[in-house]
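Morning!

As promised:
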Amino acid sequence: MKLPLGFRFAGVHAGIKKIAQKEDFTLVHCPGGATAAGVYTQNFVFAAPVALDRARTPASDIGVVAVNSGNANACTGERGLSDARQMARLAATAVGAQENQALVMSTGVIGVFLPMDKIAAGATAAAAKLGDDEAAFLAAARGILTTDKGIKVASRTLTIGGREVRLAGMCKGAGMIGPNMATMLGIVTTDAALSPDTAQAVLKAAVEDSFNCISVEGHMSTNDTVLLLASGAAGQKSEVGGQRSEVSNRPPLTTHHSPLTGSDLTAFQTALRELCIELAKQIPDDGEGASHLITIHVRGMKTRDEARRISQTVANSALVKTAVAGADPNWGRIVSAAGYAGVPFDPAGVDLVVNGHKLYERGAPVPFDARTVSAAIKASRETTIEFTFREGTAAVRFWTSDLNVEYVRFNADYTT
Amino acid sequence: MKLPLGFRFAGVHAGIKKIAQKEDFTLVHCPGGATAAGVYTQNFVFAAPVALDRARTPASDIGVVAVNSGNANACTGERGLSDARQMARLAATAVGAQENQALVMSTGVIGVFLPMDKIAAGATAAAAKLGDDEAAFLAAARGILTTDKGIKVASRTLTIGGREVRLAGMCKGAGMIGPNMATMLGIVTTDAALSPDTAQAVLKAAVEDSFNCISVEGHMSTNDTVLLLASGAAGQKSEVGGQRSEVSNRPPLTTHHSPLTGSDLTAFQTALRELCIELAKQIPDDGEGASHLITIHVRGMKTRDEARRISQTVANSALVKTAVAGADPNWGRIVSAAGYAGVPFDPAGVDLVVNGHKLYERGAPVPFDARTVSAAIKASRETTIEFTFREGTAAVRFWTSDLNVEYVRFNADYTT
């Protein structure tokens, strides 16, 4: 994995999670500063770190992002806001940045105050371990996890104006995942140069097709945050014989390249969108207890928003999700879920294809062998549900997990 | 149970359900005709019987309602519509009514054509068994069930203008239950006299507070229907020594009393609303695999619609439902679910009380003993979640079931 220049990473165990040894505190340090953009949960009950970051982004000179897992610092009132500010201050101090150059993210249990002594110790310990190698990046990716089975990372490189531009992202999330952000945290770092407004615009567009098109159970979290950090340091370092030289700790901001525009920006946007989709799909694929990643592809609606509302409604149907878990080609559940999304369509113009098998055509059932389709669902980790409507040309893809007894067992006993 | 005058009931086994012996075909006969009103699913994918009934209600002279379980006649295209019309014709013929005096309801598997030979045999067999006693009513109530554990019935009597007026209702539903009607069928019979327009208005109002305030998993069905049948035959029969005399098979319509108005109508409305709530609550209480009936009471919103959207969103949260199943007082899930209903509110003005224990007050956690609250949830079949907002004075109650492994086991293998 080629990491973007201009970043250092660390993940340490600060004791916030109950489980010993596991990383639960992460720092992403931008020694030379970075443009930062953020998109956040639309939940009216939003966590303290969301309030803090929302006020500080987009920004032109962010120095550090601190993330803790094991505690969401959500529903914690005034004290929670004060704790989030203190967490930012501790992280900034630990890396020698200004307080207002720090962003914070938290994920974990709701309604418990942050253990500030552990946060302070974590910031100091993580600052001492910062590195720009893959091991440091992976430790940071582990530090943001909660119920995830494993890390979720993705990277891209592209060449813009003769210079290699790199993107590397990490995210977390396995439960409380609904669209418009969920308990998902994501950080995408790049050494491309972006203005704050451009960063905000390209992040928003990429999230729309990725993190906003996933769900596990449709429960929108209080803490959802995706940050894009752009150091502008691309091409500042040579690689010799595949060995990368040391990154300078604090390259002056003045050496950054001009912000991307035109076709360069378009190329970057495509890479960012693909990276975000690759990251986002890993979340329902790791949905709590999930045995299938379900892709719902809706075509032929009047608008993208209508297509998304239909795909999202199908994705969040417990009956659809349990049918896939049981490899049951019960297409009536799928078609009926589309019908209650609140989007009008002609029921006589609907086709449905599951894993390549046409089950429903122009509003009427198609004879099919249930055993064959059931075997196809059982045989593959991925289930594809394709709708064709005859209302227009808008389309969308949405990803979700199935729903099986493991999800329920897991969630019936999370805090007690 | 005192049954309304002017109705006869039957439920027979017609062989539509796979399970032998179980009733799967019901007739409700109104020998002297009845005013009929209906409310139906808002799903754009609606079943053929919904299309037929919607076109025929409100009506002043309905003679018979035929219901089959085991097959929903949904997603069956043109042939489904033709089958629904034929089912109405068969029922009308069986009781000597006109074809357009018949209404039909179907519930069961989606996407399979109705077995019309069995429907025909069922209509004939049921017509031969029609009776006005409780045994006949209960057989009819059994004939509409699918995955329900038992019958769902309720009755009321009230005195209006010196005459005893009776209401008796039946409903079904245990899965695919979302608001705005779900796979729930309901029939409320009364011997009050109502004009078609009044019947439609009072049914709509009663359903708004009852069947539209329940969910199991929030999946709105293709077949949801609640009918109100008003014979106007109240007080036409004397009761001697607790023994009811034979109801006349076809009292002339002209003997019906004048339609209810004014305070008489208000009294009837109250009874209808209470009866509908009593019926509706039985559905989530019998939710597939449910171990708790959850009541969500939202107070202090600007409008009833806003209160309902919040209560419905909380009700449909898998994380809330699994927490209750596990007796886990994880109130963060409850508060965060309220926040993504799309209804703005001040998070600092929210209180939450679960089973009488205050867990959250004015946007901040209240210290509580998790074991005590968990024990309270475990000890009772009913869990009460009370929200107080500080936005206004509108309130609503909503009922749902919890979500446990039995639901998933059951629904992962329904058709195959």
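The mean pLDDT of chain B is 86.

Hope this helps with the figure draft.
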